[in-house]
TrEMBL record, chain A:
It comes from the Bacteria. Residues 22-213 form the Electron transfer flavoprotein alpha/beta-subunit N-terminal domain. InterPro entries: ETF_a/b_N, ETF_b, ETF_beta_N, Rossmann-like_a/b/a_fold. The lineage of its organism: Bacteria, Bacillati, Bacillota, Bacilli, Lactobacillales. Pfam families: ETF. This is Electron transfer flavoprotein small subunit.
């Protein structure tokens, strides 16, 4: 089974702040890590490979320093990895990100299965996976909680719906986004980490892509524009209800209705 | 495909109408749909455009008729056996056809499990922008550009997003963020039945089974928590908290002394040596608010405290403070909520 896992580098903390003067994100001490949700996708891939045979490749799009998460993936057991890095990919929204990644996947070869995390902890849209599958014209299933069966032609998985689990048999090639907790991600292995130390990681740019029209990538290829970033209104609400017990209960009920809990 | 040569500049006047995707399973309409219709009416009103809803499924006549009570202009219905269950490829094909035939300027989709995978697939097919989990939506009357505000970084920042050069502009919205359109007695809106070529409804994913889920038990996943503290004097009195939790669609959790007394399971303990929770609403009943407890819940969106001691530390953390006897407050609150519910059901019709 030839499996590709999409992994993204994200800031190590989600406690970001907005600089009130510039309106930009303060990314103090550019500490970053692999998107935690992608660990579940990677773990899923490694287990499938160990059981069914085949190969796990990881792919990330980002600045050169994103190489470090590819090494981290090697230390967990990935067989191969590549980085898409080009200034012309920068500033991409979901559409342009998914397009660049789908072009990168086509460049890497053919895969039976593509795995993505459920979402990231920074952009936090959960849209990249489904959009990649559209560009690759393959079926997709999101929020997979369990893999029941794998055959040569297809796999049977469980998808979470609000009030039910849908059991879906999906043909290869396909794309899945996996839920947190599908499997517990393993810790990186020291031995694998050492083995991968000097290993070269291929870096691909726009010049390696099938479609080399710059307008389809990065900021220019992005239909959405972030106009402004600002801190959320902190909840400084602090009401002490007045009156006897019953009056206070009445006020609370009105408040709960106003907040749509009733 | 995107490889086409430079497209001609966008003529925004060709794109008219605010459309809502109807989230339904077996003809049962998800209530987020009515909230989106409410919002769509407001947005469309600002630019004098119609409101459309897109309903796809199998045997959805009743659902279509129900939608006529919400004051939309047109209800586009795609009724086909192949659409009986959500499956990404056929649903995307129908959505694409709807967009190409009707050219809505904006599309709102509920951020449900289905909406969150369908909307991006459709956005990619239309090569347009999609804003995830918007909490505030407005319409620029001049440009017909949607102004979309959404949280990112786990709610730590907000982003204001626009899609100025593409149509349709798409957004997903979570349940319980917008106000629902009220249900009216009179019927309005034209039901437009549409057909789609069976060849377009091919799917490479087959739905084998639908298994109803057991109700979610972990307190970490609950949107609403009612916490029992030592102010509760007898185990049997937990029943009142259960009743309140039931009415608010939540679960009962507790402080450590309640676990130590053997009244509740350790899995329901909130705090440093228990679970960390981040519900939308937490109501602490007879809880003093010790630091070890607060550490496990102070990120809840809305914190309510009911305590007889005005000096109880929990009041420092609470957004809404009720100083009084829980044995007086709880029964009254339960009675009030039941009354509210009844009133709302009368207005909305029961679904
Ligand atoms: C505050 C803020 C708000 C934003 N809001 C929007 C918005 O509403 N709409 C929009 O179109 N864009 C938005 N963006 C831009 C968007 O976050 C980025 O385009 C990003 O590249 C992809 O989105 P994501 O982080 O949400 O990924 P998600 O869709 O949450 O990621 C899902 C999975 O896709 C894979 N993946 C995602 N990115 C990569 C990558 N670079 N390399 C490899 N695999 C990857 C991973 O497996 C990941 O688990 C926003 C950005 C910011 C900073
Ligand atoms: C290392 C360590 C770890 C700990 N971890 C946890 C933890 O994970 N979770 C946890 O909960 N605790 C934990 N504790 C214990 C914690 O310090 C407190 O003792 C505990 O949280 C108190 O629980 P309580 O608020 O229910 O009880 P109390 O502190 O006894 O408070 C009861 C409250 O009920 C009010 N009350 C009484 N009667 C009524 C009435 N009729 N109407 C309204 N209000 C009334 C009282 O005014 C009082 O404020 C830990 C302690 C240590 C040392």
């Amino acid at each position: 089974m030839n499996i590709l896992v999409c992994i993204k580098q994200v800031p190590a903390t989600s406690k970001v702040e907005v600089d009130p003067d510039t309106g930009l994100l303060k990314r103090d001490g550019a500490d970053s890590k692999m998107n935690p949700y992608d660990l579940y996708a990677l773990e899923t891939a490694i287990r499938l490979r160990d059981k069914e045979g085949g190969k796990v490749t990881v792919l990330s799009m980002g600045p050169l320093q994103a190489e470090s998460i590819i090494r981290e993936a090697f230390a967990m057991g990935a067989d191969a990895g590549a980085l898409l890095s080009d200034r012309r990919f920068g500033g991409a929204d979901v559409l342009a990100t998914a397009y660049a990644i789908s072009q990168g996947i086509k460049h890497l070869g053919e895969f039976d299965l593509i795995l993505c995390g459920k979402q990231t902890t920074d952009g936090d849209t959960a849209q990249v996976g489904p959009e990649i599958s559209e560009y690759l014209e393959i079926p997709s299933v999101a929020d997979v909680t369990k893999i029941n069966e794998v055959t040569k032609e297809n796999m049977t998985v469980e998808m979470e719906l609000p009030e039910a689990l849908e059991v879906v048999k999906v043909d290869f090639p396909c794309l899945l986004t996996v839920e947190k907790d599908i499997y517990q991600p393993r810790l990186p292995s020291y031995v694998l980490k050492k083995a991968a130390k000097g290993r070269e990681i291929p870096i691909y740019t726009l010049d390696d892509m099938d479609d080399q029209d710059e307008d389809h990538y990065g900021l220019t290829g992005s239909p959405t524009q972030v106009k402004k970033i600002f801190p959320p209104k902190t909840n400084t609400d602090h009401f002490t209800f007045e009156g006897n017990d019953e009056k206070q209960a009445d006020q609370l009920c009105d408040k709960l209705a106003e907040l749509k809990f009733i | 495909l995107i490889n086409e040569k430079k497209v001609k500049p966008l003529d925004k006047t060709e794109w008219q109408g605010v459309a809502v995707y109807v989230d339904q399973v077996d003809g049962k309409i998800h209530p987020v749909t009515y909230e989106l219709i409410g919002k769509a009416q407001e947005l469309a009103g600002k630019i004098n455009q119609p409101v459309y809803v897109l309903l796809m499924g199998y045997n959805v006549d009743e659902a279509a008729k129900e939608l006529q009570h919400y004051g939309v202009d047109k209800i586009f219905v795609y009724d086909d056996e192949k659409l009986a269950r959500f499956s990404i490829e056929p649903y995307t094909a129908v959505f694409e056809r709807f967009i190409k035939q009707n050219k809505p300027c904006s599309i709102l989709v509920g951020a449900t499990t289905v909406g969150r995978q369908l909307a991006p697939r459709v956005a990619a097919r239309m090569r347009t922008g999609l804003t995830a989990d918007t909490t505030i939506l407005d319409m620029d009357a001049e440009t017909t550009d949607l102004s979309q505000i959404r949280p990112a970084f786990g709610g730590n920042i907000m982003a204001h997003i626009v899609t100025p050069n593409n149509r349709p502009q798409m957004a997903t919205v979570r349940y319980k963020v917008m106000d629902p359109a009220p249900r009216q007695d009179e019927v309005s809106g034209e039901i437009v039945h549409k057909k789609i070529n069976a060849k377009k409804l091919v799917s490479h994913a087959e739905i084998l089974d639908i298994v109803p889920k057991e109700p979610e038990q972990s307190i970490e996943s609950a949107d609403v928590l009612i916490v029992a503290g030592r102010g509760i004097k007898k185990q049997s009195e937990l029943a009142q908290l259960e009743a309140l939790a039931y009415l608010l669609g939540g679960q009962v959790a507790c402080t450590r002394p309640i676990v130590e007394q053997g009244w509740m399971d350790v899995k329901t303990q909130v705090g440093l040596s228990g679970r960390t929770v981040r519900p939308k609403l937490i109501i602490c009943v007879g809880v003093s608010g010790a630091i070890q407890f607060v550490a496990g819940m102070d990120h809840a969106d809305t914190i309510v405290a009911i305590n007889s001691d005005p000096k109880a530390p929990i009041f420092k953390n609470a957004h809404y403070c009720l100083t009084g006897d829980l044995y007086e407050i709880l029964p009254r609150l339960i009675q009030d909520i039941k009354a509210q519910r009844g009133h709302k059901n009368e207005l909305q019709g029961v679904h």
